[in-house]
Amino acid sequence: MPHSSFSSSPALARIEQAYRRWGETLGGNLDEVLETFTEDVEIRTLLPDDGSTPVRGLYRGRDGARRYFADMFGAFDLLEHVADRLIVDADGTALVMVGRCRLRHRASGAEMGSPLIDVCELRDGGVSRLTEMFDTFAFHRATVGAPA
């Protein structure tokens, strides 16, 4: 990840470091990531909330965030996570991470790679809302198999 000028803000520097270490540890720094979230964080994916995938819908609070990652890592191994770019708006209330990831579905062994975009709202020195966007079709296909 290129060095960012917003690293002078302690909160943003912590978030940047957490993204970098997430890729280095393949998700092994969960507690560090959770510390970048506000107590009332909301995490949302674009996956259908119909029970067809292990990760879906809205997760609320730090306990919800922990459940989100437990759902993800219960079903998938993280093979690669790269945060190519972090973009922060002028007033420091929004951050976008542009990157990519690669996962392996534990049950089927199916692998998927995807561009990855996280859109974060920032408040009180942390991430208060995170919407994670990736190739939902590839994720769904790896989870439940190719469509008939």
Automatic annotation (TrEMBL):
Q: Report the SUPFAM superfamilies cross-referenced here.
A: NTF2-like
InterPro entries, per this entry? NTF2-like_dom_sf, SnoaL-like
Taken from the record, one Pfam family name reads SnoaL_2
* Residue span(s) of domain SnoaL-like: 20-128
**Protein name as catalogued:** SnoaL-like domain-containing protein
Tell me what organism the protein belongs to. Sphingomonas parva
